[in-house]
Amino acid sequence: MLGFLWGCYRKCPHMSTKSFSIHWNLKSQFPNTCFLPFARRCSLNAFPLSFFHCPRIHSPKPYLPQPPLVQSNPYNQTPHDVTQARESISEYLQELGLSLEDSISISSNSPKYVQMLVDGVKELEEWNAWNDSNGEGDSLGFKEMIIYMAKEKGDNGKVAFLESVGLPLSSAMSVARYLSSESLPSIIRKVKYMKENIFSAGDDKGGLSGKNARRMMMHLSISSDEDVQQTLSFFEKIEARRGGLEILGLVDATFRFLLESFPRLLLLPVESHLEPMVEFLENIGVPRRSMGNVFLLFPPILFYKIQGIKSKFLTFEKVGAAYKDIGKMLLKYPWILSTSIQENYEQILLFFEEEKIPKTSVDRAIRSWPHLLGCSTSKLKLMVDQFGELGIRNKKFGRVIAKSPQLLLKKPQEFLQETVGKLVSRCPEVFAANIDTTLKKKVELLAEFGISNDHLPRVIKKYPEVLVSDVNKTLLPRINYLMEMGLSRREIALMIRRFPPLLGYSIKEVLKPKLNFLLNTIGKPVKDVVGYPRYFSYSLEKKIKPRFWVLKGKNIECSLEVMLGKNDEEFAAEFMGVGRMLVSPSATFQ
């Protein structure tokens, strides 16, 4: 057998460029296999030796000359070689219809592709030198051979472009095969459109997209359809990178993963599909700056037809959602358009109906927190039962989920630990107090002043100290003082509901001096604190006075919330004419 192979090899003194390209392509698929060329009368130019089943020979083997193997490291490349190769690739891309600017940009940002072509030319040169031949390659210069190699790859420049937008060479080659029917100028136009109009820098501050992706995955407890599965795989690719899902909203970092996971994106026509899709989403309330976040959280939306999306929207008319409401839901939870979520939505409505939860409360909960739609009814039932043990059922439970729907996504044990834990750490005296003589008395007092059972949990959560405060020495005197200043019981109750810590402020040290400044210096009526009771939480000397004098010096009148609700940088930018707070208003005042 070995003698036969050597005889065939001797009949082929040199390889043509075409034969070599076949050899090169084979070796790229079998990098650890040695190939021998066959005579021209053979149907194939080369077979791997492993193709023949030869018996193992233990006697000394005769030396057979071998052609050079492709090395794992690149051939000796000089900067001149790389420069010439880039120029050749740029010329080739221009032949394909690209502009000079685009061709230079692509050839300069696809180093692995350049290296691959240079290695191929170097190997051909070594092959011809080893064979002492005058093959077709000898008649071409280095730059011409680079162009020849690029054409032989058959991707028409797509691999170079895909590498230039961030894909690794192996992924670029895979995606390029998928896009074989598309021309390179068409692909470039689509990528530019997507980056400039869909995935342009938006409002993903603080890794908002990544946080939402984690929340969506964490609360998904139903079987997912193919679209959601592909999206989860996309998330996993990004999660495996440095920075994890926090980089999801950074398009430059994640666009390559988007193309790797969804190469079909580059088959979508711009005029007849992408542009109408963008316009449609804008019309239902999705801002252009947030559109990229929606698509990154659920890329399959881009493949949906607009009419299909409209038909899916009809489902949510059952919760009283108008188009603008659906746009807001889509921003929070793009998976609402997936088949699995739509099917689960019907199960959730049926479940709450059986639990006798008012539909208006359920509708409001879903509109404000659509993540509920990814939760199984068996998991929801655990929390419904937990609230039932606390005496919160039917209409009462409906009022709870309408205001805090995210509570349904907690585990019962976590809910109890969190609620009780906060109270213990904030005010442990509550658990040592007598129910009848202490706690019940405070609850009755709050109810007397207009704090209903609906608002009582929030008041206690925000200011649990109210349950252990002395009624006659602290609570009643403070309430009576506010009434003496001209506020009604209803207005005081409204202030307590908005800002429960109000009941903890001393009359002498806080309430009186700040009201005096409000009435006598600022010149505003006492009723203004009803709309903004947090006024009492700010330092009179460090914040209220300095900001008032700054505004007064500029003859600016505004509400208490506008004056005090902004941080120093925002206040300085709006009222002091600077982009950043170099000195605080208090320092300016002093």
TrEMBL record:
GO terms for biological process: DNA-templated transcription termination. Transmembrane segments: none annotated. InterPro entries: MTERF, MTERF_sf. Keywords: Transcription, Transcription regulation, Transcription termination, Transit peptide. SMART domains: Mterf. GO terms for molecular function: nucleic acid binding. Gene3D superfamilies: Transcription termination factor 3, mitochondrial. Belongs to the mTERF family. This is mTERF domain-containing protein, mitochondrial. It comes from Gossypium darwinii (Darwin's cotton).
